[in-house]
Specification:
Pfam families: CbiA (PF01656). This is P-loop NTPase. InterPro entries: CobQ/CobB/MinD/ParA_Nub-bd_dom, P-loop_NTPase, ParA/MinD_ATPase. Residues 3-195 form the CobQ/CobB/MinD/ParA nucleotide binding domain. The chain has helices spanning 14-25, 47-51, 76-81, 87-98, 111-119, 133-146, 165-172, 183-191, 195-198, 203-218; strands at 2-6, 28-31, 69-70, 101-104, 122-127, 150-159, 176-180. By secondary structure, the chain is α/β, with parallel strands linked by helices. The chain has one domain (2-218): P-loop containing nucleotide triphosphate hydrolases (Rossmann fold, 3-Layer(aba) Sandwich). Helix 6 (133-146) links the parallel strand 5 and strand 6. Helix 1 (14-25) crosses helix 8 (183-191), helix 1 packs across helix 10 and helix 4 packs parallel to helix 5. The longest helix is centred in the C-terminal third of the chain and has 16 residues, at 203-218.
Amino acid sequence: MILAVVSGKGGVGKSTLSFELAAALGAVVVDADLGMANLPYAPGPDLHDVLAGRADPVEAVRSGGPVSILPCGRTLAGARAADVRLLADALRAVEAAHGDVVVDCPAGMRADTGVPLAVADACVVVASPKGYALADAVRTRELARELGCGLAAVAVNRVVDAVPLDAFADVLGAPATEVPADARLSEAVERFEPVVASSPESLPSTRIRELADAVRVSGR
């Protein structure tokens, strides 16, 4: 299964949830935000190299840690050299070699968001709890629908006060889960230690596992 994690706007914690979902699903996470990568990086071939034809996607996956990852480069030159048309084949190759793949997609409606959505079996839309978020989520779902990608779940992220989860679920037609604002989540990416592993009984871990369960159900 290839799962795309998408959002209508940046800054909603999409990369963090991609990392945590990959841990919960036992999947490889691919940082596919070619211009604004957020997931951990280590020396070696990265997605920029893969999309420039300089590296094999399977060999570029870093395994052995708590989450296997195909990182993305950080340079403008690397982003310019990357051919996004090669992304679909790269994701399929990683899936064939490693199993489930979670793709941290660029935010918004950019062309490089559409490519992973077109190849993905399902997607999770990450939304802010703010008032404009439902409209953004609807636009993102419509893009996924146009590209033949089903919506597995909606994650309303960084929640402090109560949010109308039923409205998200009813309008978007998929289970909606709220993930609380919690410093442990942002620290998890920095430390490369997912909360679902380090604090399995915490509320954020419980909600992320709910999202993972919704993804599994959608794939049946």
